Amino acid sequence: MRPMISLFVLPLLATAGCASDRPDDSRPPEANAALGRADSAPPFSVTSRVVLSPTDTLIIPLRGAVLHGSLRDPSGAAWAVVSGYDCSECDGPEQIYLIPRVGLTGTRFTGYPYPGDHLAPGPDADTVYRSRAYFGNCLADRAPVIVWLQQERDSAGWHRSTRVVVPGPFPNDSVYSDTDSVQHRVMAAAKDPNRCRQIEGRSQYIL
Questions:
Q1: Under a CB-based contact definition with an 8 Å cutoff, are residues 138 and 147 in contact?
Q2: 14 plus 85 within the same structural domain
Q3: Which end of the chain has fewer CB atoms at under 10 Å, N or C?
Q4: Helix, strand counts (H, E) of the chain
């Protein structure tokens, strides 16, 4: 289990109100690794309380929400990059969500794959999907995005692709097969974690 977010580090997120071409959380890499679980609602509730700063809190329709940072959409509106589960007692996977920092309603949000290895159930626990995910100004010619460098396996073998999601009320979700050139640009941008930051991956079973 990841550590609880401390309010002593959360004021760094308060600077997210300023427009920027980098992720709205400018923590150094060692602080990024310490970013932990948000304040969760009572067990079996499908809401979590995400503390952005001592005076800024989001109540979101997810269980076990974890705040990773935030992005600006092309209009300048701020979106929280959050992972969590959209049900209270199901076996659904943990996913990545883009949650508006203001104007949040009770609607459900689109879930995107949590990075890492996705394992099929069964004694062999075969990997059927793997990815790395980054968010921020990871593609110089695009607005801030979340990028998945991903591989999926079917009966014909492994297939590589790149998924790019631009935040907004109607997110722009695109998948590209030209993975090498995009991966090179993302890896170059990720050398500066204040510009393009990786979401730590992990393995999970997908039922």
A1: yes
A2: yes
A3: N
A4: 2, 14
And the tokens for 62?
């997810």
Instruction: Please say whether the beta carbons of 88 and 46 come within 8 A.
Output: yes
Predicted confidence at residue 104, as pLDDT, reads 65
| Number of domains, the chain | 2
Same domain, 143 and 67: no
Same domain, 105 and 138: no
Cα distances (angstroms) measured from residue 5 to each of 13, 99, 155:
12, 18, 42
Q: pTM to 2 decimals?
A: 0.75
Q: Which residue has the tokens 């110089």?
A: 140
Residues 95 and 21 in one domain: yes
Of 160, 110, 103, 171, the C-alpha closest to 132 is: 160
Give me the pLDDT at residue 32, please: 31
Q: Say what the pLDDT of residue 50 is.
A: 83
Which residue segment(s) compose the domain that 81 sits in?
A: 10-113
In tens, the pLDDT along 140-185 reads 878 999 999 999 998 899 999 999 999 998 899 999 987 888 899 9
Shared-domain flag, residues 105 and 190: no
3 domain residue, yes or no: no
Please give the pLDDT value at position 59.
85
Are 145 and 98 a contacting pair, CB within 8 Å?
no
Neighbours of 21 (CB within 10 A): 11
Last residue of a domain, one of 83, 113, 143: 113
Claim to verify: residue 198 and residue 136 sit in the same structural domain: yes
